[in-house]
Write a structure and sequence with these properties.
Helix content is 9%, strand content 34%. It has 18 helices and 73 strands. Strands 54, 55, 56, 57 and 58 form a five-stranded antiparallel sheet that branches. A four-stranded mixed sheet has the order 1-40-32-37, with no helix packed on it. A four-stranded antiparallel sheet has the order 2-31-30-29, with no helix packed on it.
Length: 1099
Amino acid sequence: MFRFLLPCILGLLLASCSSETKTQSRDGALTDGASKRFTKIGTDQSNISFKNMIREDLEFNFLNYPYLYTGAGVAVGDIDNDGLQDIYLTANFGPNKLYKNKGNFEFEDITSASKTEDYQGFKTGVTMLDVNNDGWLDIYVSKAGSLDSDDGRRNKLFVNQQDGTFKEEAKQWGIDDPGYTTQVYPLDYDKDGDLDLYVLNYRYDFKNNSRISGEIQRQIEEVTSDQLYRNDGTRFTKVTAEAGLYNKAWGLAAAVGDFNNDGWDDIYVSNDYLEPDQMYINQQDGTFKNEINNRMNHISFNSMGSDYADLDNNLHPDLITVDMLAENYARSKENMASMSTENFMSMVQVGYHHAYMANMLHYNKGNGKYQETGQLSGVVKTDWSWAPLLADFDNDGLKDIFISNGVYKDYNNQDFRNELKARNARGESMTLEAVLDLMPSQKLDNYIYKNNGDLTFSKVIDEWGLNDPNFSNGAAYADFDNDGDLDLIVNNVNDNIGLYKNNSNQHYVQFDFKGPENNRLGIGASVYVKQSAQTQYQKLYITRGFQSSVPQILHFGLGDSPEMEEVLIEWPDGKVSTLTNVSGNQRITVDYASAENNNLALRKYKGLKQSQDVAQLGVDYQHQENDFNDFSLQLLIPQKQSTKGTGVAKADVNGDGLEDFFVGNAAGAPAALYTQQANGTFRKTNTALWQKEAGFEDANALFFDADGDGDNDLYVVSAGYELKEDSSLLQDRLYLNDGKGNFSTATQRLPKMLVSGKSISAGDYDGDGDLDLFVGGNVVPAKYPLSPRSYLLRNDNGNFTDATPQNNALSEAGMVSEAIFTDYDNDGDLDILTVGEWMAPTLYTNNNGSFAPAQNIKGLEKTEGWWFSVTAADFDGDGDEDYVLGNIGKNNKFQPKKEKPIYIYGKDFDNNGSFDVALSKINEGRMVPVRGKECSSEQNPYLLEKIETYKEFASLEMKDIYGEDKLKDAFQLMAHMFETIYVENQGNGTFKTKKLPNQVQTGPTLALLPGDFNNDGNMDIMGVGAIYDAEVETIRYDSNYGYVLLGNGAGNFEYSNEYDPFIDRDAKDMERITINGREHYIVVSNNAPLEVFTFTPKP
């Protein structure tokens, strides 16, 4: 919780514009006896008879204008200053409508009387704004369509005449833009105090919407490029060229906000089709620069709507973009084709970013970077989505998510497309009506999610009363009845609007603004509301979601208490107004005249990480991954196996009392050994040896005294998914130390071990005084998920004997990622704990030097996962070892549960000599494939003849697709959980598992370190990890920037923002090392230099 560090400014004059006129108990129960949070208001009550009717003919239809079905928008604002929010609805065809709010959800059509009718052109978005700063809302209408008429597309500005009428003045103001406009966005990009306009346009052609064409992209057109208009007082001037904002894309939405926390308005543009989203960062000199690739690790592919607001109350706004991924299994299989691996990588290589057909929820880290959690948060699949709105709909102090949904015709339906192609190929002629009849059409519910306050959201469509299927597009929220909660209005295609009354009954406060003369609405003002338990933050921008705008009022839910300790209003020019001892359940008007000069620093990123310059340390290491396409061997594996990365190990190799380190590399690149110097720098040694051994893939490494001579020798694990199963490059290696840090090859002391491994652990399991080894086999080359054998190596005077035949269970341990020697049963000898992919954490009990699977273990049932790491320590202070196990996390599409695991089958299904895989899941009680028809058929061509349509594929179970006999004979594994967990050792073979906080679950945990990072005497946990090489239909695992969990000494852990490692790389391993007497941490990542950091001690 931050503290307001500045003295309060007293004497602010307040005006309560709409305090409650009757006493109302706000006990959290719904009002007026309602059973659901929202109640639909029908046309009979509202008198809103508006319908956005779509027309198609031979000249204008979805074939020559695919954006015909994007629908229209809605703007809400108080156009007559009577304290009630009025509504303006746009129609693609036919007249727009203006409705005056008469109270009690009754509205009057005043379109004709107000002179705001607009019959011309194809209307899209609408924004209410005060263009002339007279304190009265004007209306800006966006237009597109009109393929043969620039004049038919000219946007309109209806200027409020303060007498119930409006006058169209777009040309007079210089903003009658003739582009194909989706929407306009007010902002003050040049910080001169007045509001400029960003006009979001899109392309009328769809020539290269599925293939990259530099030639086409260089042909910029005024009418399709976005435009920036500078406010010069009485007129706007186009400054797109000077600002560097000319583009050529299909822009469907934008979000204005301060994306890099420098105090200047930036612009995020959501682009449809192939062209990627753009994050235009204000360079503070009148220009913008697209910095999306540096600030976000992946994005939506077909971005539609967007919104930007603070979801986790950390005072940094977060971004949501929506796409078209269907939650319904059948729709997901029928409406989406596969993503080509080759096309995907081509897009990445030309700078188009990693884009996936899914909603994205980007949490703002506060340091200019964003962490995408859509899958973890549970908001990734909302079908054909348009308007996301982030607002507190239940007044609990946390912003929820509403998303409008639906498309009038499913023109992405794959069977429809194939049938159309087939008929064209046969030369059949079709009428437009026949084509339209061929297209499926299905009304869908809009989505609404309740914010759980832990990065996750719960879908509450039915619980909150919004199960009302339709084809919904533009949407807005507003408190239409002034009862202190946010109602909803939705513009539907070919149907009446959706108007929903909110029945919430929690405390609230609302703010509107009397801004300075050149910004009367106060656009850009920030409000901080501090209560005892939390502080909320909002910034006033009115154009939100999709083609729509909301009132210039900021609404805050206050939960169970109406009291606020302090409210700060920071105006766009930096002046501050302060309110103290404020009571809720009212609307407060804040006047700029009360503001004073002050310097707020409330939203600064605060972290204790102190990065070291590796060049100054003398470390020039660079990991270099060799290029290999695993998917050419096995198309349907979930992620590459050849890029699992290397390890880092530390020890004093030359006996000088300083810690040195070794770091491996990929095949074709040399490993490195760095010895620490007295001044804390490092010197690279044994370079000739590592260059000679560079043909090996170094999967992991361990320093230990192999030959009992008192110095640290080195063991390096070999791997190689692209190798033959009997390749000599799979042999692990041993390097002996001469005591001075000089190493020589001694691999002859190891048995022949031609397996692709990952794990190495040392311990004296037989009690003879030397260190033995357990080496975990990981994966059979080209045969994922088959696992090779593992090895127990007994140390016989510096020579290592394969003792696995006498401990047979260890040889079949599974896809071992990591293993440790541990005395889990406190009997004085070392047992073994293994973790790995598609396996449960497994304990092997040491019985007088022989290992067998532990018996009568309780608490680890149904814990099969994709485990990558394990560490042991006494986290609860009871004298035995507890464990933290690193899994893939929850931020993925699979989401297995104990009652609904995911499965993998492995077999040469098509008898072509390759080992095929098929992942499956449980959907509504049926075992169905994870992947779709196209990619499944690409791996197994016989499916093309067996299953003709996408609809048929979506209706079939695994046994119907692959054949029951083939599945019965296939190699099969399952996974029940993907969360990273803490395992409390309760003694007597009993364990208690606890899922760690959701900040840990944002991605894979590939490496773990226990330690007391905050020096409070309790054991904490640090974890890092990423997997950048997921198959292209799986969002890559790049959202775990690392974490520290602070322990309380009793086995409980809390995520720490201050101790944030923030590793924005494909991190694979981590080690602690003492440099100049201070603990540091080394992280090795794929295709990156090393990262070395420490934490600044807290005073």
